[in-house]
Amino acid sequence: MPRNRTIILLSVGHGCVDVYQGAVAALVPFFIAERSYTYAAASGVVLAASLLSSVAQPLFGALTDRWAMPWLLPLSTILGGLGIACSGITGSYPMTLAFVAVSGIGVAAYHPESARVARIASGGSHAGMGWFSLGGNLGFAVAPILVAAVVASGGLRLTPLLVVPALAGSVLCLPVLRALRPTTGAGSDTPRWIGTDDRASFGRLSLAVVCRGIAFAGLSTFLALYAPQRTGGGTSAGTAALVVLYLGGAVGTVLGGNLAGRWDRVTVVRWSYVVSIAAVAGVVLVPGPAFYLFVALTSAGLYIPFSLQITLGQDYLPTRVGTASGITLGLTVSVGGLVSPLIGGVADAISLQVALAPLILMPALSWLLFRTLPEPAPPRR
Length: 381
Description:
This protein has 15 helices and no strands. The chain has helices at 3-35, 39-66, 72-87, 93-122, 126-154, 164-179, 181-184, 199-231, 235-262, 265-285, 290-316, 321-337, 340-349, 352-356, 361-370. It starts with a helix and ends in an 11-residue tail after the last helix. Residues 6-375 form the Major facilitator superfamily (MFS) profile domain.
């Protein structure tokens, strides 16, 4: 199979999985409206999706460093879809948390192995990993539209229809795995990259991505509720804000790959976080139509580093590509969801604006951490 076609299929499959990460935040307003959840209770749903995912992600990464497990791709895709599909059919809050947690485990199992396969398929190129990441960003962008189309018309009881992307994504995995079987299958001579692990730099990178994840998770969880307050619109204003946040991520990912072709990755990421500081401040503080402009700038600023941080992590840990992918692509993103209940508690006690204000500091911390990071030399295959 031609390399470009393989990357495209992996990218679309990635989107079919990340629909379910975006769907959790998109479902929050419907849980509040239909089940009268408080901000804290609704953010607990996001926590459920993130908590087990945070624990499982590095474990799956370590496993894929030892054994090739390409069969995880279709299986984890189905698991991610089933969890979200079942989350709306029970009125029980604990069962809702359990189903969303199952989805989180599916997402956790998918990312380390898929990033390893994408690195093999792309030959380690930044552009190839950028296209792979783009698929996930588009999945996030489609999620609020898909959820609104399904749930707004018939309520949470229609969430089983949300399993369709998972079925499509699992099918799309199969031709890729057949084409790459000599290099991804169990017992195969899996391509290795030669280099020396820089664990100190990888640790600082991981902390920077955690701060980025906190900012993104906090905004994505509450943006649909905050947008009507800032713009005077209704539910559609919240859905539109989420679409802008996620769709801008697709633009940011492609832009990041292009900018990294002109400057080194660390420099591009540093400047992106500088832009993000002002953009997040605008989202929190500026009312009216300009709110959407700042959402778009925030999305681009937080997503330009996304695929670059994945390849940086893999280059800092060339002998532990699965672990590096599990942490930079999944764990540090999931950790962001762990702070959502704290934000929700402050919003219930004071206001949503006060609760979101500390997110302005997160890209600033990421920028500070990146100031000390070197640009690693690409490892030899």
